[in-house]
Amino acid sequence: MSKPGSSTKRPETRIVTAGRSPFEHHGLVNPPVYHASTILHRTVDALENRGQPYTYGRRLTPTIAALENAICDLEGGAGTVLCPSGLQACTLAILSLVASGDHLLVTDSVYGPTRNFCDKTLARFGVTTTYFDPYAGAGIEKLIRPNTSAIFTESPGSLTFEVQDIPAITKAAQARNIPVILDNTWATPLFFDAIGHGADLSVMAATKYIVGHSDAMLGTVTANAKYLKQLRDTHGNLGLCVGPDDIYLGQRGLRTLAVRLKQHQQTALQLAEWLRARPEVERVLHPALPGDPGHAIWKRDFKGASGLFAIELKPCSKAAVGAMLDHMELFGMGWSWGGYESLIVPGKPHRTATSFEHKGPLIRIHAGLEAAEDLIADLDAGLGRLKKAG
Ligand SMILES: Cc1ncc(COP(=O)(O)O)c(C=O)c1O
Predict the structure, then answer these.
(1) In this structure, are residues 144 and 169 in contact, taking their beta carbons and an 8 Å threshold?
(2) Residue bearing the CA closest to ligand 1, atom 8
(3) What are residue 316's DSSP bridge partners?
(4) Is 5 within a domain?
(5) How confident is the model at residue 50 (pLDDT cuts 50, 70, 90)?
(6) Among the atoms of ligand 1, which is closest to the Cα of residue 217?
(7) Same domain flag for 126 and 20
(8) What does the alpha-carbon distance between residue 88 and residue 106 come to, in Å, rounded to a whole number?
(9) What is the mean pLDDT of residues 2-21?
(10) Is the CB of 185 under 6 A from ligand 1?
(11) How much is the CA Rg of the chain, to the nearest whole Å?
(12) Which residue of 84, 227, 276, 352 is surrounded by the most CB atoms within 10 Å?
């Protein structure tokens, strides 16, 4: 099995080879799935001295190791841990860095449940949170307090799509020895090198593009060498582990990530450009479109754009939005994204540090792997219903 970070091959190759060693498993292409709680030791010495790599099902199995190694290889980190959901990966990354009395800086564009964790759970343990403008960049420096112990970023925001200047933020943070966490679910390491751009911990809701088939919940946190021990200790102390079959689904999804992402990107851009020309649409929020406020930084730092973006409709009634969305043929309505199927949902940004100005309703779209022409026909019919309903 290739060791994390040991391969010099391109990412598209590494997602195929990482975490696999067929001839250790009778030539089988895919690593076997080990179901385990108890793991036996031959001697008291082995039991007491942990002389074997696998000691208990919650701690590590070859199934866990295979996906951890593959993700770590792709992220270019020092180590990866798996979590039962993407939200758990976000909360674990934070918990591994903060203590009672600390202060946390979090982007105002953060995924809502991550915000809830900070406001409701962390607050109970005496950790205070300040939300910052996603476009703060180097200006984050002014918000750092003596007790600031971590900065949480998400780029782009998964509802409003602001691209953050991660190199500027990490530079300011490093000058004060403060670790930066990045929720990199949208881009994945294929489109944004989180650790290479200075993030100390890279988080993914692997539920989305890694699993890719809307059939499992999974999260990953990868750390650089400086923060790996505290990440692993916190993960172990919380007793986090993922069922082997869900890990396998993550691993299977990973193998096709590069081709899926390229297609999601292409289809999303086709839809975004088509929508931009529609009279019912006020604006399209997609960092890969020239003119988008985040475009310059996206172009500088990212290698691609995934399939998730949003539109602001011209002001219209709630009933008109219902007329459009309730009868879509191909687009499903569900609170997720990253799977092979297209999704569409209304979005309500929650802000406390900044305001997100929008006169008309915000609609979030995930471009799946259906033919773009069919998706456009579905959107066309939907916008027709919207217009008719007023
Ligand atoms: C940006 C982002 N981070 C984290 C999560 C949480 O992932 P999960 O649903 O696997 O808990 C989501 C889910 O939508 C998300 O969009």
Answers:
(1) no
(2) 86
(3) none
(4) no
(5) confident
(6) 10
(7) yes
(8) 16
(9) 81
(10) yes
(11) 22
(12) 227
As given in the structure block, the two tokens for residue 125 are 């343990």
Confirm if 168 and 279 have CB atoms less than 8 A apart: no
Going by CA atoms, what residue is nearest to atom 9 of ligand 1?
Answer: 86
For residues 180 and 75, state if they share a domain.
Answer: yes
Which residues are registered as beta bridge partners of 220? 82, 204
Checking if the pLDDT of 3 tops 60, the result is no
For 331-362, how does the pLDDT look when each residue is reduced to its tens digit (9 = 90+)? 999 999 999 999 999 999 999 999 999 999 99
Domain that holds residue 365: 258-389
Q: Is 282 exposed, middle or buried (0-12, 13-18, 19+ CB in 10 A)?
A: middle
Distance between CA atoms of 356 and 218, rounded to whole angstroms? Answer: 30
- Do residues 144 and 188 share a domain? yes
Q: What is the pLDDT of residues 260-314, one digit of tens each?
A: 999 999 999 999 999 999 999 999 999 999 999 999 999 999 999 999 999 999 9
User: Does 12 score more than 70 pLDDT?
Assistant: yes
Q: What is the pLDDT of residue 2?
A: 45
Q: Same structural domain for residues 223 and 286?
A: no
The residues carrying an active-site annotation are 58, 111, 183, 208
Quote the CA–CA distance of 157 and 261 in Å, as a whole number: 18
* Distance separating the N- and C-terminal Cα atoms of the chain: 59
Tokens representing 305 are: 């754009």
The SS3 assignment for 55 reads: coil
CA geometry: angle at 257 spanning 254 and 260, to 5°? 145
Map residue 14 onto helix, strand or coil. Answer: helix
> What are the tens digits of pLDDT across the range 131-167?
999 999 999 999 999 999 999 999 999 999 999 999 9
Domain boundary among 231, 255, 279: 255
pLDDT at 51: 77
Going by their DSSP bridges, the two strands 219-223 and 201-205 should be labelled as antiparallel
Of 118, 162, 208, best ligand 1 pocket probe by most atoms within 8 Å of the beta carbon: 208
Q: What average pLDDT does the chain have?
A: 96
In-domain check, residue 3: no
pTM greater than 0.85: yes
- Tell me whether residue 2 is in a domain: no
Q: What are the DSSP calls for 238-300, one per residue?
A: TT----HHHHHHHHHHHHTHHHHHHHHHHHHHHHHHHHHT-TTEEEEE-TTSTTSTTHHHHHH
| Cβ atoms 156, 294 nearer than 8 A | yes
